Each structure stands twice: as C-alpha cells, then as structure tokens.
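2024-03-11 09:14:02 DEBUG pipeline.ingest accepted 1 chain
2024-03-11 09:14:02 DEBUG pipeline.ingest length=326
2024-03-11 09:14:03 DEBUG pipeline.predict start
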Amino acid sequence: MRIVGFFRQCLIAALGGVIPAATVSAQPFPDHPVKLVVPFAAGGGVDILTRVLSEKMGQDLGQPMMVENRVGAGGNLGSDYVAKSKPDGYTLLVATTGTHAINPVLFPKLPFDAKRDFIPISLIAAVPNLLVVGPRLQVKSLQELIEFAKRSPGKLSYASFGNGTSNHLSGELLKMQAGIDVVHIPYKSATQAVTDLLGGQIDFAFVNMPLALAHVQSGKLNALAITSAERNASVADVPTMSQAGLNDFVVESWYGLMAPKGTSLKTIDVLQKATAQALLDQKVRDSFAKNGAEVRSDAGDAFDSLISSERARWTEVIERAKVNVD
C-alpha cells in the first residue's frame, strides 16, 4: 500500500508539472503583438487610416497592433514580405486596390500570387480621390481644365504616387474620356507628389482624400471634382466627376486586411470579429469620416468578389491605355 501511495503521489506531482505548461501553450490568439504591414510610406492615406484602426483593434484584442511601413515596387515588397511570413496571424497585410487589383496585371512576374497566397480578412475603408490643382494652374472647374489641356496639348503635367497606382490610372482614365494629352509624372511616394503639387512644380493630381483634405480645406489646393459616385460631406461643395461633365467616372481606392495563406480559420475568425468591432466604434468612424473615408466591412467571400471585379475593371484600363511599369 505504501508503494502504491508513493507512485500515486509521484503521478500527481508529475501531472501538476504538466498542466501549467499545457495551459500556457493553449492561450488563445493573440498572446503577443500583431504586425500590420502597410506597403506604402508613412503619412499617406492608407497609413493614416491603418493607424486609427490599429489602435482600437489592439485595445479590443488585448495586444498591440504594430504598424510597419515596408515601401517599394508599388506595394509589392510589403505584399511579398507578408505572403512569405509565418501563417500564424501575427503578420498581416493592409492590402489596397493597387496591391491586389492593379499590380497583378502590371507585373506579370511577381514573386507571389496575389490571389492564392493570401486570405482576405475584411475590408476596412473605401476612399475616393480628389482631382486637385496646384497654385500654378488657375482653373476653377473640370471643364476649364479639359479646355486648357486641349488648347495646349502636352503642356500640363499630373502627378501620381508611382507607375500603375490608382492615381496614375485615374489620370489615364481622364485622358481617355476627355480626349486630352497631359504628361504623367510618377513619384516614389504620396507625400513627395503632394509637396511638388503644393510648390507648383506639378499642375494637378488625383489625390486620396485623407491626404488631400487638409490642403483643400486650407485653400492650398483647389478641388475640381471627387471620384466617388456621390458627393462627400467633408467637401460638400465639390461635384462628382459625373456632375462635372464626365459620366461613369467613379474610382475608389479600397483598403483591407489580409493574412498569409495557411492561416487557420479560427485565427481568421478572431481577426474578422475584431475588425468588425473596431469599425463599429464611433471614434474610429468619426476619424475615418474626417479623412473622407467610408467605412467598409465586407469580409471573406464578399471581399474576394470585390477584388475580382476590380481586377477585371483595371485590366481593361491598363490595356486600353497601354500602361506599363518600365
């Protein structure tokens, strides 16, 4: 009996040593900070909104959401980094129209597959562009801009945030629909483009609302039109492109969260719920609205369907305009 009691005590002691370790290893996701990779420079529209969202999501998840800017190749470097990251939910991509609807068409030899290598988590926002002119160009409307360009073909220049970006393709769409000849000047970052626009080195640009709004409200840039289907309350006096004279000109940049392929459905579910909860927060919604962004929370298959339809749309524009990244 004493021997049995001895072994029983040993077994209890052994189990006592195992149970705490098992409890630690089974802690729910997340148990350490989550990295949100923004594949564009700090200070741009996607970066501004991501930082607003990440703060609230971090609070709800109980772990910090750390924003990391990995810049280069029109968003491809950051996308590639996430595609090759461990699929554990701790490294996520802030995907955009550019990274997942445009770049796969422009870059036929990407080191990752934009469709197969990611799992869509949730959209977070849709952001229109403002067609803005700098202080050098004294035009007051879209029609005046078009008339000026037709009188002086090849004289006006417009900035983009890089070859193949939505800002660039918006300019190409304007050229096609209005029948004008203007010069495209690609920049490496949004902030550099806007700086030159403010300084008068560039005539006009399609600029994401979060980045353009403060300059428009201060009078440093003049907004001729907005690329959304309806007017925006932040710039209620600015007409849509259709109202200004170009029908069917609707361009919105969307932003959303994605995880590397192989991330567990359980982890995806946690992230989807945390994103949806954060997007319902009034402070987040007010901050998005202040920056001219509309909250979007389409998740999973709905998000995936949007990407497919957007890719088809921009493929047509790229082919018609013969856009390349050389």
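2024-03-11 09:14:41 DEBUG pipeline.report The chain has two domains: 34-127+252-321, 128-235.
2024-03-11 09:14:41 DEBUG pipeline.predict end
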